[in-house]
Amino acid sequence: MEQPIYTTRAHVFQIDPTTKKNWVPASKQAVTVSYFYDSTRNSYRIISVDGSKVIINSTITPNMTFTKTSQKFGQWADSRANTVFGLGFASEQQLAKFSEKFQEVKEAAKLARDKSQDQGETLSNHSQESGRETPSSNQASSINGTDDEKIFHVGPETAVLKTENEHLKSTIEQSTTNAKKWETELQTLRENNARLVDALQESSANVESWKKQLGACKEESDTLREKITELEAQCNEANEEKQRNAQLSVRVQELETELHEKEQELENLRKQAEIIPQLMAECESITAKLQTAETKSKELEGRTEGLQLDIDDSQQKQANMKGELKKFMDMLDGKIDELHEFRQGLSKLSVDN
């Protein structure tokens, strides 16, 4: 059973099979990319699935190499799939972790291959030793006597040796077949490795061209940014000019309103100017009346002064009359007192009488 040993998320790309230069997106968005370990086959695979579509199914071999082409992008070549896979990560840390895991899995695959080769060499040596022992057993059987005697005396041992010999022959044949397969796979791997080296060289050249294109794009981007800054400054100036124009429009409207008011005032003044002669005549008549009134006022003032003198004389006379009246009242009071005393004297005389 295969078990996932590491999982991450990345954008998946594949090299264009026709040009071997451009990258073709295998997923529209970031997908799950996992390392799987098969304990029965002792193998490792990188698998990625987008929905129901398998976009990466790459068995890791010791000859594979994971290359970092940028801060967040890495690639490796798969000779069996006859393609180059690329992964774009969201951060440098994810790329570094994936690269470290790739190296670990590659070392584990190398150890597994060495172990299988050691087992194959052990089986080959064992089969060769069995092949050497078989003639000696045949010689011993021929020395011991006839075929019937051989069967009678050494039958069980010969049967065991034949069984082992057949088993070893089948093992050797299988080893030979496996060796031929391995040679074929090795030749295929060498050819694929040569292709991958060419593809890697082309990708390196593409990286250089991409770097140049990136530099040109950066320069163009800087130029565009400067133009955008200039346009923003021009837009700001245009906005300020619009604000000024709006303020001037408001000021013009205010001045037009004031001019209209002044024209109305001027019209009113013109109307009033038409009434001025009539007002002047009225003013002259009023002036004549004022002069007459002043004359009368002066006459009245003279009369008022005479009346004031008369009032002062009358007040003086009234004050004198009040003084004389007071003296008369005092004299009258004295006379009344004398009369009262006289009455009392008369009453006393009448009482005496």
TrEMBL record:
<dbReference type="Pfam" id="PF00568">
    <property type="entry name" value="WH1"/>
</dbReference>
<feature type="region of interest" description="Disordered">
    <location>
        <begin position="297"/>
        <end position="316"/>
    </location>
</feature>
<protein>
    <submittedName>
        <fullName>Homer protein homolog 2 isoform X2</fullName>
    </submittedName>
</protein>
<dbReference type="GO" id="GO:0014069">
    <property type="term" value="C:postsynaptic density"/>
</dbReference>
<feature type="compositionally biased region" description="Basic and acidic residues">
    <location>
        <begin position="109"/>
        <end position="118"/>
    </location>
</feature>
<keyword id="KW-0175">Coiled coil</keyword>
<keyword id="KW-0770">Synapse</keyword>
<dbReference type="GO" id="GO:0007216">
    <property type="term" value="P:G protein-coupled glutamate receptor signaling pathway"/>
</dbReference>
<dbReference type="InterPro" id="IPR044100">
    <property type="entry name" value="Homer_EVH1"/>
</dbReference>
<feature type="domain" description="WH1">
    <location>
        <begin position="1"/>
        <end position="109"/>
    </location>
</feature>
<dbReference type="GO" id="GO:0005737">
    <property type="term" value="C:cytoplasm"/>
</dbReference>
<dbReference type="InterPro" id="IPR011993">
    <property type="entry name" value="PH-like_dom_sf"/>
</dbReference>
<feature type="compositionally biased region" description="Polar residues">
    <location>
        <begin position="119"/>
        <end position="145"/>
    </location>
</feature>
<feature type="region of interest" description="Disordered">
    <location>
        <begin position="109"/>
        <end position="149"/>
    </location>
</feature>
<comment type="similarity">
    <text>Belongs to the Homer family.</text>
</comment>
<keyword id="KW-0963">Cytoplasm</keyword>
<dbReference type="InterPro" id="IPR045027">
    <property type="entry name" value="Homer"/>
</dbReference>
<dbReference type="GO" id="GO:0035256">
    <property type="term" value="F:G protein-coupled glutamate receptor binding"/>
</dbReference>
<dbReference type="InterPro" id="IPR000697">
    <property type="entry name" value="WH1/EVH1_dom"/>
</dbReference>
